[in-house]
Amino acid sequence: MRLKTSLLKEPKHKELVSCVGWTTADELYSCSDDHQIMKWNLLTSETTRVVKLPDDTYPIDLHWLPRSVGGKKQSHAESFVLTSSDGKFHLISKSGRVEKSVEAHCGAVLAGRWNSEGTALATVGEDGQVKIWSKSGMLRSTLAQQGTPVYSVAWGPDSEKVLYTSGKQLIIKPLQPNVKVLQWKAHDGLILKTDWNSVNELILSAGEDCKYKVWDSYGHLLYSSQPHEYPITSIAWSGDGELFAVGSFHTLRLCDKTGWSYALEKPNTGSIFNIAWSVDGTQLAGACGNGHVIFAHVVEQRWEWKNFEITLIKRRTMQVHNVINDAVDLLEFRDRVIKASLNYGHLVVSTSLQCYVFSTKNWNTPLIFDLKEGTVTLILQAERHFLLIDGGGLYLYSYEGRLISSPKFPGMRTDILNAQTVSLSNDTLAVKDKADEKVIYIFDALSGKPLGDGKPLTHKSEIMEIALDQKGLTSERKIAFIDKNRDLYITSVKRFGKEQKIVKIGTMVQTLAWNDTSNILCGIQDTRFTVWYYPNTVYVDKDLLTKTLYEKDASEFSKNPQIVHFVGNQITIRRADGSLIHLNISPYPVILHEYVSSSKWEDAVRLCRFVKDQTMWACLAAMAVANKDMATAEIAYASIGEIDKVQYINSIKDLPSKESRMAHILLFSGNTQEAETLLLQTGLIYQAIQVNINLYNWDRALELAVKHKTHVDTVLAYRQKFLEDFGKKETNKRFLQYAEGLAVDWNKIKAKIEMEIAKERERAAASATVRASVTVQQ
């Protein structure tokens, strides 16, 4: 990826340009110390003067009122705030008319920023004050007062906090009084510029120590650049938070959100005092010290999938390279490309007005449809369909271009969603809520309605990243997520009434990804790269989970690596310095998943015998139990030396009725409640009581016996024997109450138990006869 810069031969401004701001994706306003405000139209390449300011007004900062005001999305910005050296800020309309001038600070107003809703304005000045104003320019509060000038200000993602500079310090101050203020030393020199992104919630700072730095919202340093030759005079996030730009003397740099640099340009600009990204994030403009305005387009983005490599070579042209046969295709578009995604055999490209869907089998005839809203901010793909996210909502399309659904939830803000907070599979869409970070909304992809009982999934702490598995049945769909403590959890998305278990399967997890062809999960936890070959093991046999893992030392990936893809058996990881590392894992677990999904148990056993790997046997054991194939489970458990489980499986086989066997398989997986419910529903009361006795759930066993008026003496006899074995006396009042005047006769109890077993055998034989006669009739 790099920047393609353009400068006019002669500057349009006679003095230094102090600030720039975009109204639409193709129109920019610039202000200069020559008191002129100029309008640049990139479509017609025309530059016109909007207004000449009074001679005593030297502009310093400009910020357009956000385009979505009061829930209404406007196609372009209508007015902007301009701060100036005379201590005032001016609210100016698009035509250049000064609507209002407000005396704001003693000395220059060094920066002014609207919040994301456009309902409040923050200004900072040489007098060291931070002030909050209403949209109409009325003072709401003076947030801070200090002895040094404040050079830069930025709103927090939720507009509840303000970030500002104080010499070498950065300060985050909430608008609410009596809430803790966060302050830390960020640079060794004066901090000149700062920016806070609402999508990734990361903070940028640039200073006179010639460095730029990336921080998280708690003030932890994520990246620090090497010192440049000159102070960093400007820094700015792109709208989607994936890139940022850095400006210095004769220097313009494009960086990834993790800090490493994509490209360095050395244009003849003097110092770049201000950088503004266009609304669609495809280009940026810089205010230059020599009177120029520099424009830079982001080109040469790359997308890879299997044997295809696609590069955006110009704003409207993509090059497709098939590395197998070296074939090269050029794709031309009517408008400039904004976003693209390549996965599952399809390339989806959104331009400013249309969406193109290409199949990797045929690059000549794309499917094209018009977009409802303006700029697409995110494209996510699944095997059967893809999701477009723009300022107006979430739209799910089939690869034939048909709109499938448009899910909505209360308080939905689509402008701050990214690939970590939205996940898509063939039948499910999951979205992390921004208003309450502990909540994940889960939708049926085809209808757009909430899944299950309609309640969102709620966790006990804030969720950072979510991912849905891609394969298997809808009823078994799983979601994995990382929370604020960096713990990795997995749970089922189908939630009807009963509280679904959320199970922790990893700690200190930085990043995760599901495989595209089978439900294998990989992640980097602490110093180890881990692959969970069958994460569902936690619901089947928790003890087996550690045996189904593949682990590898992750020190080679350096600090804060990110998993980019997990396709087939190849994993692509991006290190903190931007370099890509490709890892290959064993292809056998993927083959095992395929065999099991098509119920080829003999082939699965044969594969495990061929590979001779304990991990494979452990995966097969868990898969077999999950699919109730106990014969295969017995072979697999025997191969990994789990003799106690083999014996239990053998005892299950000897049970007379199908219902009993099912209940004991549920017990094997730890689902006690479900096993009991199944036995009670099929009228096997004694078996349900015996299950609770075996698990020492004495109170529940007695409760069932009393409720169904049977086997009370059996429960009391086993309880008495249990207490005698441990040399204890009965203290439970309920047991004492029912034991009064009851003598335990073991012969009688044994006869009753044998009678129950005989009854169950008769029932099983009768139902088998019925089944056989039905089959004959058919």
UniProtKB/TrEMBL annotation:
It comes from Anser brachyrhynchus. Signal peptide: none annotated. This is Intraflagellar transport protein 80 homolog. The keyword Transferase does not apply. InterPro entries: Beta-prop_IFT80_2nd, TPR_IFT80_172_dom, WD40/YVTN_repeat-like_dom_sf, WD40_repeat_dom_sf, WD40_rpt. Residues 300-588 form the IFT80 second beta-propeller domain. Component of the intraflagellar transport (IFT) complex B, which is essential for the development and maintenance of motile and sensory cilia. It comes from the Eukaryota. Residues 616-762 form the IFT80/172/WDR35 TPR domain.
